């Protein structure tokens, strides 16, 4: 079966750095996405990786290793507004998006 | 950027009634839109893929007669929850992709519709 694993919850301190991991086992691979979702709101797009390596976008970076079925989202200079759930999703061989359960990130002052 | 509008954002209805949720792509045409359901503290669950001008493709376990999807134009898809019951209470979210080279990998979500069935 297809599976996306990410930690359920993480806690970090304002101003610090946090890394949210995502491992996947899917039938084929056509890209990996990270979305941010604040409570009660729809997800918003953060990043897309299809090739191995690190994609940097401001305070957020996303890394992909296809051979390891692994990605991480790195958040720097954490702000209180970064408290949200972070969803990892993989597009499989049929271009269907398979979603992880999300990681709830709690930022403490 | 691509914008998807979803309406209503919040609805309360009595058990047994039907509720219609609209999803519009405001500045692009979407031949395909997706409908998701999300229960508290859980991830998105794809319910169906809405195809303009043809029948929707439902995921396994989703009742097509209960969740009616109509994709009448390239900018509008509707989800009707028929004869709603309390267990249908959930957060329903639609999404669409602008397509093309630039937009194919960017899925834009509507703001979501929170349905509460009493």
Describe this structure in words.
The complex is a heterodimer of chains A (109) and B (118). Helices cover 0% and strands 57% of the residues of chain A. With 109 residues, chain A is mainly beta. In chain A, strands 2, 4, 5, 9, 10 and 11 form a six-stranded mixed β-sheet that branches. Chain A has a five-stranded antiparallel β-sheet with strand order 1-3-8-7-6, with no helix packed on it. In chain A, a hairpin with a 6-residue loop joins strand 4 and strand 5 (44-49). The radius of gyration of chain A is 13 Å and the shape is globular. In chain A, 33% of the residues are buried. The model of chain A has no long low-confidence stretch (mean pLDDT 94). By secondary structure, chain B is mainly β. In chain B, 3% of the residues lie in helices and 49% in strands. Chain B has one helix at 100-103, and strands spanning 4-7, 10-13, 19-25, 32-38, 45-51, 57-58, 67-73, 76-81, 90-96, 108-109, 113-117. In chain B, the strands form two sheets. In chain B, strands 2, 4, 5, 6, 9, 10 and 11 form a seven-stranded mixed β-sheet that branches. In chain B, strands 1-3-8-7 form a four-stranded antiparallel β-sheet, with no helix packed on it. In chain B, a hairpin with a 2-residue loop joins strand 7 and strand 8. Chain B is globular and about 40 Å long. The N and C termini of chain B lie far apart (37 Å). The relative contact order of chain B is 0.32. The mean pLDDT of chain B is 89. At the A-B interface, strand 5 of A face strand 9 and strand 10 of B.
Mind sketching the topology for me?
The complex is a heterodimer of chains A (109) and B (118).
Chain A (H helix, E strand, L loop, with lengths): L2 E3 L3 E5 L4 E8 L6 E6 L6 E6 L3 E5 L2 E6 L4 E6 L8 E8 L5 E3 L3 E6 L1
Parallel strand pairs in A: 2-11
Antiparallel strand pairs in A: 1-3, 3-8, 4-5, 4-9, 6-7, 7-8, 9-10, 9-11
Chain B lengths: L3 E4 L2 E4 L5 E7 L6 E7 L6 E7 L5 E2 L8 E7 L2 E6 L8 E7 L3 H4 L4 E2 L3 E5 L1
């Amino acid at each position: 079966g297809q599976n996306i694993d990410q930690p359920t919850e993480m806690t970090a301190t304002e101003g610090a750095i946090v890394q949210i991991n995502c491992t996947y086992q899917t039938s084929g691979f056509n890209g990996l996405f990270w979305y941010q979702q604040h409570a009660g709101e729809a997800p918003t797009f953060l990043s897309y990786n299809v090739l191995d390596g690190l994609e940097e976008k401001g305070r957020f970076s996303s890394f992909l290793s296809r051979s390891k079925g692994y990605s991480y989202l790195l958040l720097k200079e954490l702000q209180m507004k970064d408290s949200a759930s972070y969803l990892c999703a993989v597009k499989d061989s049929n271009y269907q998006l398979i979603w992880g359960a999300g990681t709830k990130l709690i930022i403490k002052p | 950027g691509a914008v998807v509008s979803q309406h209503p954002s919040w609805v309360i209805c009595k058990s047994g009634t039907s509720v219609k949720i609209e999803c519009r792509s405001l500045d692009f045409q979407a031949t395909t839109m997706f409908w998701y359901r999300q229960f508290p503290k859980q991830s998105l669950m794809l319910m169906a893929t809405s195809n303009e001008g043809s029948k929707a493709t439902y995921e396994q376990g989703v009742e097509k007669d209960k969740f009616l999807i109509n994709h009448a134009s390239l900018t509008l898809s509707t989800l009707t929850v028929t004869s709603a019951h309390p267990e249908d209470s959930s957060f329903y979210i639609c999404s669409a992709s602008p397509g093309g080279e630039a937009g194919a990998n960017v899925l834009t979500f509507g703001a979501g519709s929170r349905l509460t069935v009493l």
